[in-house]
Amino acid sequence: MKRINNTIIIGVDHGFGNIKHASGSFRAGLIKYDDKPTFTTNLLTYENKYYLIGEGHKEFTADKFLDPDYYILTLAAIAAELRTEHITTARVHLAAGLPLTWVGEQRQAFRDYLLQHKTVDFSFNHIDYHIEFVGADVFPQGFSAVADKLYMFRGTNMLCDIGNGTVNVMYINDRKPDSQRCFTAKHGVHQCVMNIKENVLRRHHIALMDSTIENALINGGEDLPADVFETIRGTALEYINELFRILREHEYDPVMMKLYIVGGGGCLIKRFGQYDRNKVFINTDICATAKGYEYLSAKSAERRSVC
Fold first, then answer.
1. Alpha carbon distances (Å) from 130 to 134, 248, 285
2. Half-sphere exposure for 237 (CA within 13 Å, toward CB)
3. DSSP label of 58
4. Of residues 183, 138, 191, 130, the one with CA closest to residue 161
5. Half-sphere exposure of 230 (CA within 13 A, CB side)
6. What confidence tens digit (pLDDT) does each residue in 4-59 have?
7. 222's torsion region: left (phi>0), alpha (psi -120 to 50) or beta?
8. Its pTM surpasses 0.70
9. What is the per-residue DSSP string for 172-217?
């Protein structure tokens, strides 16, 4: 979080797999209850309804502002961030984002969605919060993760943000983003996970949980049978090869340009991919985009105060 006068800027990266804030993340899922559930870890209470945060998995949707769950997940992210400094009452300016090619069309609708209530009272993990929303900014995701590092982007560069649902790509030439050369593809890490589940079931007759696959992709498969992990590794390589094929279709030249990878998919490429480490740079901080939202929002606030 960032403070400007009596306002706290909180960046929230609304992923399809995980919700990220500057100091952490949690799974982008929830289960709603009318009555208080038996287990109350990560329980959020709002308007007499109960939500277990981090349970289940969000399906891909191109219009997050039509999904009421993302509002509840936003409240959970705010609470998780405020808890790092033991704050329970705050004036909050939200900083969020959308895929590069959607942000122009959907920015206002998503901003209105985030600011649908001026004040909100809720509890999360048995702590009560009172939030006054004073504004919201919506930025291009991916680019936000490197906005404070543009000095590195000399020459021709491709920025690739690999999320759970989508891959977002932007060209940055001589430290200037090229808004005319952006694209979004539905080839996020969840596609890799689904392919792994199918291949493992077909070859080994084992139904793996998503969490088992994700742990193997991030940390390795030491606890899995060797042949099962080999299927996971091989399928991950197929996913990575397809990703680079998509990038080449959009004029990625590994000889003439540098590639900067952000988002959760970077960990997968770092573990299983083969790439030129002098030309491909991977940021494995999955909170980088949320931090970038806060950076850009604070810069915008500084400019407004000067004006």
1. 13, 49, 30
2. 9
3. P
4. 183
5. 5
6. 989 999 999 998 889 999 999 999 999 999 999 998 899 999 999 999 999 876 66
7. alpha
8. yes
9. EETTEEEEEEEEEES--HHHHHHHHHHHHHHHH-----HHHHHHHH
